[in-house]
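Hey, can you fold this?
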Amino acid sequence: MSIVQESLTLLMDIKQGKESTLGKVLDKINQNPASNPLIPFGKFETVHFARFIILPETRDLKNGLIPASLIFASNVDGNPIEHLKELINHAGPGLDQIFQYCKGYPETQPITLKQRLRYFKKHMIDSATYYVNTQGRTVKQIHLESKLRETIETFLDQKDWSRCSALEVRQAICDFVHSHPEFKDLKPAKAFNPPWWEVIRKHSDQLDIAGIIDQARSHLSFLSNNDKQSSIRPANAQVRKLTAYEDIIDQNQFSAIGFPKEGGFLNIQGMISQIPLKLILPLANLITHTVFNKGNLANVKTIHFARWVPLNYKWRFPFIKHPQRVLFCSNYDGSQENYMGAFIDLVAWGLNLTFSREIRYPDTRFLIFDGAKNEQAFKRFIRTVQIPTQAWYSAYPHLSAANLNNNSAIRHGLFGKMSEQAAQDWLHRF
């Protein structure tokens, strides 16, 4: 059975006056995320990405106080609870140095494993939508396939293959790999094929997104976002602070937090305006797990992981629970400019569905039109809701999503029969 990639998100309030001190601790982690003395993420074989974010004290849309808080978010292979246990077992004292600045963290010495685990489980929150580039591909598999490609390339460089057919070269590679001590027991990677998800995925090519949107237009005429705030601009100091955490490696992180609008009680338009938050995010979660689980998010192929997480729920009425904020986190390839450009060009309708009920979002029509298509207004909006990620770790910082897919295809090509043309195509992957 394939190992599923899961998300862990923790949310803790920060003790009064400790925000700055905690920030300095996280800055030290960020200087060497893989090998720092507090949480050496590089030693954990199941962690793809991890981040710490400090959310400053703020006010909600009804002027209620939201205290400063700390977010820990990670993408892992397997059960998040097992991931927590591994962190506690191997980095307990380091966790203590970080979370001692959070309210309610155990203070008795020594702090036991059970106390830490109880605290973290209490502060776990669920993602409403969670996207994984390729379900079933583990950190261990990624490193193995990267090493496999490098080893084969070294082997190919040692001989002139110009007089050999593509099938002869492939056979030589297969013989070499299967006799290599590190790869002699190599098998095809297991595909992620949950039975009922696979049925949906097989029919995903027939999913007419444009047609669905077209048909929805007449039913969504009252779902417009016209705040007349598209001219808002992020402060230059804020942009400089954000860019200081970007373009350090081949990948980038993105963290943003917004305030979703609320619908009034017995206000039909207001209540329906919550559809994107209460219906679209769970629906998007289903689609990302069934349709877009093979390295392609509606033709955007540079995203490794992404999540939408509602935060700070409050009961507005006896039966209505509304999040005061929504957190979005992603790990992607390339620059922020290219990242946003790809989204705007390919899935502006998706951005509108998931973000249009945020305060200050560019004006939309019928919920899914305009909005992000106003490129400059959208990019300004993104910078106003984006927040710094104080510490960020990647298990494979120099491998793009395209690299990962190519490496997996190389491994797959070592098994089974091939035609001469298929072998030529496979060899072009090196």
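Oh, and this one too while you're at it.
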Amino acid sequence: MASSKEPVKPVYALVGENLFQRRESLDRILAAVRKETGEAGQVTTVEGKRAELAEVLDEVRTFSMFSQRRVVVVDEAEALITRHRDGLERYVLAPSDTGTLILLCQSLHKGTRLYKALHAAGAIIECEPLKSYTVPGWIIRWAKDRYGKTLGQQAAEMIHDLIGDDQGIIDMELAKLATYVGARAEISAADVDQLVGECREENVFALLDAMNDGDAKTALERWHQVIATDPAAKERAVGGLAWGVRRLMEAHRAYGRGDSIGVLARKMWTDAGRLEHRLRRTSPRQLEERMCDLLAVDLAGKSGGGTIASSVEKWIIKHTLRSAAADERRMQSARR
């Protein structure tokens, strides 16, 4: 990755599905350009689907009167690479010394001459999702490097447990936490519980509790409140709801093995009475059905088979009605 310890390269390929890492890698390259030249540099961004190689390379090679280094960023570069692989390979072998070409792409086949040429030049920056077990360590380092805040292992694990592996969302929560603690140097587990845990858990479990109680009106109201206050909620909805269902499934399994309800409640940042009520109101089979249907919602959203918002509403209504029907069956059984 570009840094103050090495000169800016004439070509980079930021390769991988992790959008957060690609954005951060691009920011660091541009920061290295600023450090090397003492100026912001002239940056042009083009779309790989529409760009022509000749125009892109002309832009990189053209001397700028306003900057020592011209930077051209090709977004979704796979399309450009597919159409002009040979031309790009020739350019990588003999690049301009006054420009930097940055290719942003989700994947780049390692068997191609282009990949080998980029790799030989040290120009490939891998941007793949972190392995889940490494995320708490990354949270601690990122909080210190980006926000100047110390974060303990417990607090980092709480953030990971509440949010998951998405570095972009974690970064947003860390920014909020850094503002929340102000001049204080440390972000504590109590801070995480107050700002992140309560919000995430309250929203998700309040919705699930209403479903368990057969209260579709309240469940839908909670859902509408979530998407009204968080513009990105619809895109994160399936993951958030799946997180809540999965937590209840794990609690059911652990309780069935004989684990203490008090210990389980502490792990889920709630009280024993509330968790026991949730476990009584759902069965493992009900939760498995909810999870399967959530996977279908996710697939439909990704394949264009309906909007996430409407699919989640249908999911809420379907499983709320099933909970109400299960309650009715239990009441009839008790009357007998």
